[in-house]
Specification:
There is one protein chain. The protein starts with a strand and ends with a strand. α10 packs across α11. The longest helix has 19 residues. Strands 6-5-18-17-16-7-8 form a seven-stranded mixed beta sheet, covered by helices on one side. Strands 24-26-25-28-23-27 form a six-stranded mixed beta sheet. By secondary structure, the chain is an alpha/beta fold.
Length: 696
């Protein structure tokens, strides 16, 4: 049952969302339209009763006194904080009028539809709205999260290989992933920890000594930004020592001899000099992965936050393939979706058949099949008009001023827009610059479906638990209303919940029936290539890409040399997500802020001693891009030459109109979007030359 009564509390089953990718089954205790308690559901498909601090604190989003509760229209200059309250009819009318005007003047492609990390089906309703409106430009941060793994997988083996911890694995190679701290696209830590308790071994590749690194059989503390070199070093050992799956390689791979010759140049000794990982440890880890069958690579989005994201993903895909770990239980699988409406049909891709030819990043020769615009290319279009001007933007589930590399560039771009709409639950630095701000419902206040489109082979029920404030609308409802106002009503519904019903219709279930069941999972089918081959031009895993000339891609993964050592900036900067926040969100939730009150930069005690830096004091971190202030935390969990700075920090308790609110501790003041990877438009968010000093 979805609900049950206990004393005067009504317990509702749902799944967590919008505090991360979500996935944990929850029991929400409700009294008088208020969530009074959250606990993990022991029957949870993914979490088995586990729930993190963010999930427990999630009701704190609903009743915050500074929550946005009615639509606002700007009356002063951008960022001056002058607003007037308007009705929803006026808000929808204003947005429709301005976007239609831009469409008439610039064409529909002059309006960009922007999303942060997908939180539910609102991402796909947004794509549907863009397609129906006629704009090819859906903008997302997938350049640094998900797309390099997924799209590179499509080109290499025809699918996105996800770690399968539902079946027994011999070894987990956790590479740039920290699932006990932050949720990686539904890879809840519970399943991995169960594998370890069942005897699986674990290798962790991470610049930081995470909790998983402490549990690992082997921890490879690599220099940030050198993942590609390390993976190629693994391949060198496995090929030279003939530890690969000879039968799979012979029958199901294309270009093995090319790869074998190529990786001769990445000996453990050479790779050790690049990565700071000892050659003996590289050999030991490579041998352990190759000899463990099956083995799963749990790869996190940290590997996607360098200009070399394509090569890193390619290298790890080659590892999975030559060791026979693709689409086998307990390896990296092609998850099978349940019988639901396919993405293309849901977003009405048929209405924009030439979308790829018109998207902004096509003109930058990005990799085919990348279907969201990288932020670096969006801002170039706004600021420079290349390949054509962008004059309007709709932003939901995102805070680009904080989330995009080079925050000052983002602010400059926003000031160049004719019209900006932001939908959020709180007045963020980005919302403060908008023309119209829309108050949205939180996850517990509307019906939703989790994990649609993520490629993990299941969807999760997220039913409404309580009613939202009167004028707070769900993103789905807002987009449905905008669709009815700006486009033909035939593509939209009187009741936005009918979008959920349409998605589920092929399964033969109503949304109510889906909620009763809790989740839908595709059937387990493995080694599908044995009957149909791989969905690539050669029908095999393309260790050496056959589409090199056609798409302008490198045939084999290569490590791009790091910038020369800079005596003025002798340290290496990296970052990690805070386990108590989601990117820039929720620092205004009191219970979470108490757990993580300061923007902490991790520094090794030896380095701190040399620079006369002490625990808990303010420090200034600088790159050639700029400088910020954070608070020193001394730990030997980072390398003496590495700083791990806090990401996503702004101060919601401060004056939103003051630039220091978002510049003082914001990691993306330190990053640049001038140089990006060609394939995905990915900037360097990690591995950046830096320095640090005491603020005093």
């Amino acid at each position: 049952m979805a609900e049950k009564m206990e004393d005067d509390i009504r317990w509702v089953k749902t799944h967590c969302g919008r505090m991360d990718h979500g996935g944990c089954a929850l029991l929400a205790g409700v009294r008088d339209n208020t969530i009074v308690k959250i606990k993990g559901d022991p029957d949870g498909f993914l979490n088995r009763g586990y729930v993190c601090a963010k999930g427990l604190a999630s009701p704190g989003r609903l009743d915050h006194p500074d929550r946005l509760t009615h639509p606002l229209r700007r009356t002063g200059g951008r960022g001056e904080g002058k607003w007037e309250r308007i009705s929803w009819d006026a808000a929808i009318g204003t947005i429709s009028e301005n976007f239609q005007r831009i469409k008439e003047e610039q064409g529909a492609k002059g309006v960009a539809f922007c999303q942060g990390m997908p939180k539910g089906i609102e991402h796909f309703v947004l794509i549907r709205l863009a397609n129906v409106f006629g704009s090819p430009n859906v903008v997302s941060v997938q350049d640094v999260c998900h797309a390099p793994r997924e799209v590179t997988g499509l080109h290499t083996c025809g699918f996105y290989p996800v770690a399968d911890f539902h079946w027994k694995t011999s070894l987990a190679l956790v590479w740039g992933s920290n699932v006990t701290s932050t949720n990686e696209e539904g890879e809840i830590c519970t399943l991995l920890l169960e594998q370890l308790r069942g005897g699986a071994q674990m290798i962790v590749v991470d610049p930081r000594q995470t909790e998983l690194a402490k549990k690992a059989d082997l921890w490879l503390q690599l220099r940030p930004g050198t993942d590609t070199a390390l993976a190629l070093g693994f391949l060198n050992v496995i090929v030279e020592e003939e530890l690969f799956d000879k039968e799979f390689v012979e029958v199901w791979t294309h270009g093995f001899e090319d790869l074998a010759r190529h990786v001769k140049g990445y000996s453990p000794q050479k790779v050790s000099e690049i990565t700071w990982v000892s050659s003996d440890l590289i050999r030991e880890a490579a041998r352990l992965y190759a000899r463990s069958r099956p083995a799963a690579i749990q790869w996190g989005n940290a590997i996607e936050q360098h200009t070399s994201a394509f090569d890193t993903a390619r290298s790890l895909l080659c590892l999975m393939a030559i060791c026979g770990n693709l689409d086998v239980p307990g390896g990296n699988i092609q998850a099978n979706e349940p019988n639901i409406l396919p993405l293309g049909k849901f977003v009405r891709a048929d209405l924009l058949p030439n979308k790829w030819k018109e998207m902004i990043h096509t003109f930058h020769h990005a990799i085919p099949k990348l279907m969201t615009v990288p932020p670096a290319f969006l801002r170039k279009a706004i600021l420079e008009g290349f390949p054509y001007p962008i004059k309007g933007a709709y932003v939901q589930c995102s805070n680009p001023v904080m989330a995009y590399a080079d925050s000052r560039m983002t602010v400059d771009a926003v000031h160049q827009l004719d019209f900006l709409v932001v939908a959020d639950i709180f007045m963020t630095p980005t919302a403060s610059l908008a023309d119209v701000v829309l108050p949205v419902a939180t996850q517990f206040e509307f019906n939703d479906i989790g994990h649609y489109g993520l490629g993990h082979g299941y969807i999760l029920a997220r039913p409404k638990v309580v009613e939202p404030p009167k004028e707070c609308w769900s993103d789905i409802r807002i987009l449905n209303a905008l669709g009815r106002a700006m486009t033909s009503k035939e593509y939209w519904f009187d009741d936005p919940d009918n979008l959920l019903e349409a998605l589920l219709r092929p399964s033969g279930r109503s949304y109510g029936q889906f909620v009763e069941q809790g989740y839908l999972k595709g059937e387990d089918r493995f080694r599908k290539y044995e009957s149909r081959g791989f969905s690539t031009p050669t029908g095999k895993v393309e260790l050496c890409l056959s589409t090199t000339e056609k798409f302008g891609l490198r045939p084999l993964p290569e490590f791009s040399p790091l910038p020369a050592d800079d005596s003025e900036y002798p340290l290496v900067l990296t970052s990690a997500k805070d386990p108590f926040y989601m990117h820039s969100s929720y620092r205004w939730v009191e219970s979470l802020r108490k757990k993580s009150p300061d923007a902490l930069v991790e520094i090794h005690p030896q380095t701190a001693f040399k620079l006369n830096i002490h625990e808990g004091e303010e420090v200034v971190i600088e790159t050639r891009q700029g400088g910020i202030t954070q608070v020193a935390h001394l730990t030997d969990g980072v390398h003496p030459r590495v700083l791990n700075a806090a990401y996503g920090w702004w101060f919601p308790e401060a004056d939103i109109t003051a630039s220091t609110t978002w510049t003082r501790s914001n990691y993306n003041i330190l990053t640049s979007a001038q140089e990006v990877g060609k394939e995905f438009g990915t900037p360097n968010l990690k591995g950046i030359p830096c320095r640090i000093r005491a603020a005093a």
